[in-house]
């Protein structure tokens, strides 16, 4: 996770600025799409699935999109791969436990799940449409195809000492901390919900849990494309952890709109922007505030995602994109032929 930096109170102050701006400007002001991108259009027919490695990621990357789809009469389902139970810095700040035990980490995971439920309520997402799969925080990259052979024993979290999700969060039987089991559950969710758009982490995201989530979601999507009838949603990617991202605050303390990072602007992917209304921005800020334990530790970073737009990359980038796991690249080499964006099975 990104280190703290300034006091979390700065984030709260900025939220107040956004709220005051909305009260003065009750209606949205039309703005052109961010440079180098096209405006994203959704409708009441949209079935959006947001997939997040940790409880707050989907809100940082897509809270405005979630609101837009729901306001138009569409459907949203949010899937959290982990409970975010291994973020020691935030856990210690929230609980004042200097030497946490496995039980402390488990309790912290429950706390983060409750924070996420409150954030979804703020966005209008029903509790039934929020799924948490309970896989290992700060351990997903250990489940990557190149890291964990199909015959390997289940990974055990050094934080919670679990080798499988809590029973209440297992959707299928015999689920353990194995990559193939994560893919099984993702396939099950995709076929059951049949989304028209899947919002997932960008492959360039430098957090190992994020890029590994990207790998397994794409594996699952490639598999369900052969279902009868096929499940073939649009794939939009959001970015959380990347150098100089989000971009810096612009003039007079007002946040600059997101534009594609310079290092990523030249690839073959298409960039889509969603210009947020004032109400959507305020509601996103309110949802971020529900992650109280995170705001304590990295408030300024979280609030830096309160922008005039959200930005998504559609399509796969050219060439190999590494996913680093404790010094090893765990992203499999992509096949030149065959299904679009399929990865070589290990």
Overall CATH class: Alpha Beta
What is the CA–CA distance across the termini? 29 Å
- State the major sheet: 8 strands, mixed
Quote the beta fraction: 5-15%
Q: What is the percent of helical residues?
A: 25-40%
Strand order of the largest sheet: 1-7-8-6-5-2-3-4
Number of domains: 1
What structural class is derived from the secondary structure elements? alpha/beta
Shape: globular
Find the CATH topology. Rossmann fold
Question: Please, how many helices?
Answer: 8
Poorly predicted regions: 1-32, 335-346
**What is the CATH superfamily label?**
LmbE-like
What is the CATH-assigned architecture?
3-Layer(aba) Sandwich
Rg on CA atoms, Å: 19 Å
Mean pLDDT: 86
The count of strands amounts to 10
Task: State the order of secondary-structure elements, H for helix, E for strand.
Answer: HEEHEHHEHEHEEHHEEE
């Amino acid at each position: 996770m990104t280190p703290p930096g300034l006091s979390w109170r700065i984030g709260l102050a900025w939220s107040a600025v956004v709220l005051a701006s909305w009260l003065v400007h009750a209606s949205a002001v039309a703005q052109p799409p961010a440079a180098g991108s096209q405006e994203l259009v959704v409708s009441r027919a949209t079935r959006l699935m947001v997939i997040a490695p940790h409880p707050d990621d989907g809100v940082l990357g897509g809270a405005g999109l979630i609101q837009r789809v729901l306001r138009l009469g569409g459907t949203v389902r949010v899937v959290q791969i982990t409970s975010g139970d291994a973020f020691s810095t935030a856990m210690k700040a929230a609980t004042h436990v200097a030497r946490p035990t496995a039980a402390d980490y488990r309790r912290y995971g429950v706390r983060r799940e409750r924070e996420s439920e409150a954030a979804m309520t703020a966005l209008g997402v029903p509790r039934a449409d929020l799924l948490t799969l309970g896989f290992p925080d700060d351990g997903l990259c250990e489940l990557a195809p190149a890291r964990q052979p199909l015959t390997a024993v289940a990974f055990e979290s050094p934080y919670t000492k679990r080798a499988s999700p809590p029973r209440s969060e297992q959707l299928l039987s015999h689920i353990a901390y194995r990559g193939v089991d994560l893919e099984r559950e993702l396939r099950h969710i995709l076929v059951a919900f049949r989304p028209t758009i899947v919002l997932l982490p960008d492959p360039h995201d430098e957090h190992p849990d994020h890029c590994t989530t990207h790998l397994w979601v794409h594996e699952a999507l490639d598999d369900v494309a052969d279902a009868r009838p096929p499940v073939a949603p649009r794939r939009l990617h959001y970015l959380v952890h990347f150098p100089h991202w989000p971009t810096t605050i612009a003039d007079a303390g007002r946040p600059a709109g997101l534009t594609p990072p310079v290092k990523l602007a030249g690839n073959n992917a298409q960039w889509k922007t969603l210009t947020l209304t004032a109400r959507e921005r305020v509601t996103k800020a309110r949802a971020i505030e529900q992650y109280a334990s995170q705001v304590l530790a990295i408030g300024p970073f979280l609030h830096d995602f309160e922008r005039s737009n959200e930005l998504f990359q559609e399509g796969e980038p050219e060439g190999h994109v590494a996913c680093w796991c404790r010094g090893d690249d765990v992203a499999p080499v992509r096949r030149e032929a065959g299904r679009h964006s399929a990865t070589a099975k290990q």
